[in-house]
Amino acid sequence: MATTLADEATTIADLLADARRALAAHDAIGAADALREAEMLVAAALQLGRATLLAHPERRVAGDDLVRVRDWLARRARGEPLAYLAGRREFWSMVLRVTPDVLVPRPETEELVARALELGDGIAARSDVPAIVDLGTGSGCIALAIAHERARWRVTATDASADALAVARGNAASLGLAQVEFALGRWYEPLAGRRFDLILSNPPYVAADDIALADPALRHEPRMALTPGGDGLAALRHLIADAPGFLQPAGWIVLEHGAGQGADVAGMLVARGFRHVRCAPDLAGRDRVTSAQWPPSAAGLP
């Protein structure tokens, strides 16, 4: 979209119509979602609520506002996620800052949060305040959702990327969640000598040859957070293999994984000695989150 039209003006209704037509032609969006995407994009670019946007279709848009809408529309039509354009994403009733240094939080990951809260409540009812670690925290969405819901729980979050950890720390500060501890390092590296009641992670799990990686939107997200290469299971293998050394007796691990990886993840957990293995579906009914318990009698064993 040209930015030489800053002196022109158009209405919100016209902008929505233009955006809907442009986005409907995008393979990753399509006609069914084009109107919703158009409304979200224009509202975010103009810093308006959706209700205000729809209540004033006659409002004139000009100058920098018009340039911004057209620029964002062109970039979104090329596949750039709206969350990166707006710099924010809603997750678990929180608004999080997101940048290209972190994955865009997705609704599927809320299933992991729900399972972690359920298990943590059980631990809290039987003993003490649960200690939780979120490995590869990215934007901090998992750790911060837990801390937001259970202020007394001890929550730690790690990431190998200093830039990602800076985003997560910033989100914690903006949400007033100062109790969350952040540690720089790959997976368990910064946690030597520590044990937790819950280990949580949404690791990279897309296989290197998965056609999903060709999605224009994914090309904008950090590749190291999407795929470990190979069959996509390398990070999950590592997390499962080393988990017992960081779990309290009867502690739990909860992992997000690909829709076709549930059986593989469950098999690895059983082979490692975990029990009570359970796979939960996402909103589309696909296997997405698997949890398992380390037996109390086996705690600390290699």
**Global shape:** elongated
Q: What's the total count of β strands?
A: 11
**First-to-last CA distance:** 59 Å
- Rg calculated over all Cα atoms: 21 Å
> What string gives the helices and strands in order?
EHHHEHHEEHEHEHEEHEHEE
Structural class: alpha/beta
**Whole-number mean pLDDT:** 90
What is the tally of helical segments?
A: 10
Range of helix content: 25-40%
Sequence of strands across the biggest β-sheet: 7-6-5-8-9-11-10
The description of the largest β-sheet is:
7 strands, mixed
Looking at CATH, the homologous superfamily of the largest domain is Vaccinia Virus protein VP39
Describe what this molecule looks like in 3D.
With 302 residues, this protein is α/β, with parallel strands linked by helices. The chain folds into 2 domains: 9-78, Orthogonal Bundle (Helicase, Ruva Protein, domain 3), CATH 1.10.8; 99-298, 3-Layer(aba) Sandwich (Rossmann fold), CATH 3.40.50.150. Helices cover 38% and strands 20% of the residues. The chain contains 10 helices and 11 strands. A 7-stranded mixed beta sheet has the order 7-6-5-8-9-11-10, with helices on both faces. Helix 1 packs parallel to helix 4 (63-77) and helix 2 runs antiparallel to helix 4 (63-77). The longest helix has 18 residues, at 109-126.
Descriptive key words:
302 residues, alpha/beta, Rossmann fold, 7-stranded mixed β-sheet, 10 helices
Q: Helices and strands in order, then pairings?
A:
Blueprint: E1 9-11, H1 12-24, H2 30-46, H3 50-55, E2 60-62, H4 63-77, H5 82-86, E3 88-91, E4 94-97, H6 109-126, E5 131-135, H7 141-149, E6 154-159, H8 162-174, E7 181-184, E8 196-201, H9 234-242, E9 247-256, H10 262-272, E10 275-281, E11 287-293
Parallel strand pairs: 5-6, 5-8, 6-7, 8-9
Antiparallel strand pairs: 1-2, 3-4, 9-11, 10-11
Helix pairs in contact: 1-2, 1-4, 2-4, 6-7, 9-10
